[in-house]
Amino acid sequence: MRILFLGAPGAGKGTQCKRLSAKLKLPHLSSGDLLREAVKDGTPAGVAAKSFMDKGVLVPDNILIDMFRERLSSSSCANGFILDGFPRNIAQAKALDVLLEDLKAQLSCVINLEVDDRLLSDRITGRRTCGNKTCAAVYHLKFAPSKVDGICDECGSALTQRSDDKEELVMARLKTYREQTEPLIEYYDSKKVLHTALGEGEPDQIFEDILKTLNTNCLIKQ
Ligand code: AP5
Ligand code: MG
């Protein structure tokens, strides 16, 4: 299965993709996580990306396209994958079409996770992430708190706040999403692969709804 998630910043793409990845045993490719790793490691892509991420705007397309060309062609993606955050504009979607054509593959399903704008800002500013790269568990101060304040339940490392999760950047990120990423809803709808899932309420319930959607429309085995 080749699944793609769309959704605004804070919609819960990472939360749901992580669960789906464990359930379907498919790699979860998050563009944001890959970029943040590149920034941390100081790779040329990371150095080039940082200033764009710090402004809440899109990193140049060629960086993402190169990154995903390499990942999608690797053997770990031979049985499928779950894309989160790529593509993020029409140019990237067209580049993905070409990549998939080269691999003689096609998307099985695009899930658009819908969440009311009023919930997004709280979700983004309250997010905390485990600083241990191999763990990277995600928490929320209010909606999914760790047992001990500031400490990861899974591995005991300190929790950190993403540098772009500050209140003052939320509006810029939402604006970028509306202008550049939202048009992908129509792009994939016209290809008859788009399905909408409500991203509000309990994460467990949202996950069940996503599984139902995939099962009905993409014939997965649960
Ligand atoms: P990226 O890392 O992709 O950020 P994003 O799209 O803004 O999305 P988020 O990761 O903020 O949200 P999410 O939907 O994953 O939500 P999550 O599950 O964590 O991109 C960052 C930057 O990288 C971009 O701004 C851009 O600069 C660059 N970039 C990335 N891809 C690019 C591309 N293709 N091209 C160019 N540039 C690119 O949940 C959020 C919080 O809410 C968590 O704390 C979670 O615990 C909580 N939560 C989740 N579900 C629920 C629920 N149901 N109820 C209550 N709380 C919940
Ligand atoms: Mg994410």
What proportion of the residues is helical, as a percent range? 40-55%
Shape: globular
How many helices? The count is 9
Mean pLDDT comes to 95
Uncertain segments are none
Specify the structural class. alpha/beta
The CATH superfamily name is: P-loop containing nucleotide triphosphate hydrolases
* Cofactors, ions and other ligands in the entry: BIS(adenosine)-5'-pentaphosphate, magnesium ion
The name of the CATH architecture is: 3-Layer(aba) Sandwich
Using the CA coordinates, give the radius of gyration. Answer: 17 Å
Q: Reading side by side through the largest sheet, how are the strands ordered?
A: 2-3-1-4-8
Quote the beta fraction. Answer: 5-15%
Main beta-sheet strand count, sense and barrel state: 5 strands, parallel
CATH topology: Rossmann fold
- How do the SSEs run, as a string of H and E? EHEHHHEHEHEEEHHEH
The overall number of domains is: 1
First-to-last CA distance: 13 Å
Would you count the extended β strands for me? 8
Regarding CATH, which class? Alpha Beta
Short synopsis of the structure:
47% of the residues lie in helices and 15% in strands. The chain has 9 helices and 8 strands.
How would you characterize the overall build of this protein?
The chain is α/β, with parallel strands linked by helices and 222 residues long. The chain has a single domain (2-116, 174-218), classed as Rossmann fold, CATH 3.40.50.300. It has nine helices and eight strands. It has helices spanning 13-24, 31-41, 44-53, 61-72, 90-102, 117-125, 167-181, 183-189, 203-218, and strands at 2-7, 28-30, 81-84, 109-114, 127-130, 138-140, 159-160, 194-198. The strands form two sheets. Strands 2-3-1-4-8 form a five-stranded parallel sheet, sandwiched between helices. The protein has a three-stranded antiparallel sheet with strand order 6-5-7. A hairpin with a 7-residue loop joins β5 and β6. α1 (13-24) packs across α9 (203-218), α2 (31-41) packs across α3 and α4 runs parallel beside α5. The chain is globular, with a radius of gyration of 17 Å. The chain binds BIS(adenosine)-5'-pentaphosphate (AP5) and magnesium ion. Magnesium ion binds next to α1.
